[in-house]
Amino acid sequence: MQKIILGIISIVIILTSGCIDSKSGQAQEQRQIQVTEQIPPDKISQTGEDSKNLTSSQPVIISIDPNVGTTGTKIVIKGKGFTARDNNIVFRLKPVDSSENFKLGFENGIESSDGETIEFTLPSTLGACAHIPEYNTRCPEIGLLLNPGTIYPVFIVNINGTSNTVNFTMT
Question: What are 66-108's pLDDT values in tens digits?
């Protein structure tokens, strides 16, 4: 039996409507929603059929091909530690130290038939959070855009952990 302890998942979503004050940079109307979910240990243990799809290795990206593209581009990521399903491809939209919201964009639930290859088509918009069905995570229904001419660090998140990053340039 393999046990993975994640504990508490907490996501803070800030929804903004109205105009931004040009002097303060603050939204005139702002609503903050915090979704916190504590996962009991009996729900975290992976046994039976699900454990056959798990590996104990953290995901590692060896290559991304192509590393330049636009919406609709078929992308192949080679590496190891990918799960049969529920690999989340993450694009870093803002620097780690940015004070802006939505620093990451997600393409969720991607499958890997061999644990070493992930293929997906670059969407026109990305999700606002990782979706992990086993833990009933909830993501807001918004679309985050990728800007042409921008280099995005890309990494994989799945039940095995978080991979290294590789760069992808949006054209």
Answer: 999 999 999 999 999 999 999 999 999 988 788 887 789 999 9
Closest C-alpha among 145, 170, 81 to residue 117: 81
pLDDT for the residue numbered 102:
76
Q: Kindly tell me if the per-residue pLDDT of 161 is higher than 80.
A: yes
- The strand pair at 74-80 and 117-121 is best described as antiparallel
Report if pTM > 0.70.
Answer: no
Which of the 8 DSSP states describes residue 8? E
Q: Which domain holds residue 78?
A: 2-170
CATH code, domain with 65: 2.60.40.10
Nearest-Å Rg of the Cα atoms of the chain is 17
Q: Is the pLDDT of residue 62 over 60?
A: yes
For residue 44, what is the enclosing H or E element? helix 41-44
Residue 58 vs residues 102, 104, 154: alpha-carbon distances, Å: 25, 20, 16
Buried b (16+ CB within 10 A) or exposed e, 89-122: bbbbbeeeeeeeebebbbbbbbebeebeebebeb
The count of structural domains within the chain is 1
Sign, Cα dihedral of 155, 59, 4, 44: positive
Spatial contact of 88 and 131, defined as CB atoms under 8 Å apart: yes
